[in-house]
Amino acid sequence: MHLSTRPAFTQGKPRLKPPFPADIGLFGCPTTVTNVETVAVSPTICRRGGDWFASFGRDRNRGTKLFNISGHVNNPCTVEEEMSIPLRDLIDRHAGGVIGGWDNLLAVIPGGSSTPLIPRDVCSNVLMDFDSLMEAKTALGTAAVIVMNRSADIVRCIYRLSQFYEHESCGQCTPCREGCRWLAQVMRRFAQGKAAKTEIDMLWEISKQMEGHTICALADGAAWPVQGLVRHFRPELEARFAKVGLDLAGETRKRTMGVH
User: Fold this and answer.
1) What mean pLDDT comes out for the span 83-90?
2) Do the two domains 57-149 and 154-252 of this chain adopt the same fold?
3) For the chain, percent helix, then strand, then coil, each to nearest 5?
4) Which one of 92, 164, 200, 239 has the fewest CB atoms closer than 10 angstroms to its CB?
5) Residue 48 CB-density burial (10 A; 0-12 exposed, 13-18 middle, 19+ buried)
6) Each residue of 64-80: pLDDT tens digit?
7) What CATH fold (topology level) applies to the domain 154-252?
8) Which residue, 29, 16, 85, 28, is CA-closest to 56?
């Protein structure tokens, strides 16, 4: 929606629909907003036919997809592959595998920064298509695969995403404007080791208040990475503030004893 409003010198904010851009779009005229990837593959489908394109993938997940693979891999790349390719095969075949080997994998964000991460045990068997990733409680999204090995601080990684969405929120919808700010603030406390134990559940509750309650999907994109972190890496959050608590207690004892 931003693309169809900004050239008209209006604020780049989403609006309620209907009316849809196909009825009233740029300059009040019917406007078609098309994904570049769709435009790029259309001539080939026209030449070779729909049956050829549908021969890739599996039922309900047909065709090819551009996968962008980045992060802790030996050969970051963008590659066109068939839908439903196993995630592990995609990384090993085209990106040279995970740095340090598959056993060194920590987690993968399979569909761009707005999709929930999945841990290594899920990554080993998941297929890169809509249905398989939905079953894994994540999504294909933009198919931008972000690989994180065990050298990554998973809490700081998600905190960085929360910062991004806080900055990118246009502020029009209250759940997004306030929710993004709260998520970033709480995630900052976890990243700095200053969070309370009750704030894990607070993260989950805030994200659920944001999800599905705004005009556009930016609030969902801010909520889902945090949900993935809480769902799969709650022990990481708990260990962090538990460790900090011990460190603080030790520091208190030192000061009481006059040790500096």
Assistant:
1) 99
2) no
3) 50, 15, 35
4) 239
5) exposed
6) 999 999 999 999 999 99
7) de novo design (two linked rop proteins) (1.20.1440)
8) 85
Please check whether residue 209 is in contact with residue 149, taking contact to mean a CB–CB distance below 8 angstroms: no
pLDDT at 244: 52
The verdict on domain 57-149 having CATH code 3.90.950.20 is no
Per domain, the residue ranges of the chain are 57-149, 154-252
Dump pLDDT digits (tens) for 19-70: 998 998 888 899 998 999 999 999 999 999 999 999 999 999 999 999 999 9
Q: Which residue has the tokens 């569909």?
A: 111
- Give residues with Cβ within 8 angstroms of 124, minimum separation 6: 88, 102
Q: How far apart are CA 129 and CA 9, in angstroms?
A: 38
Determine the average pLDDT of the residues in 183-201: 94
Residue 251 pLDDT exceeds 60 = no
Q: Quick check: 232 pLDDT over 60?
A: yes
Q: Cβ contacts of residue 31 below 8 Å, gap of 6+?
A: 4, 21, 22, 25
The amino acid occupying position 82 is E
Using left for φ > 0, alpha for ψ between -120 and 50, and beta otherwise, residue 18 falls in beta
State mean pLDDT over 13-17: 85
User: Encoding tokens for residue 85?
Assistant: 């390719």
Helix (H) or strand (E) holding 148: strand 144-149
E strand or H helix at 234:
helix 218-257
Share of the chain above pLDDT 70, in %: 89
Amino acid symbol at 79: V
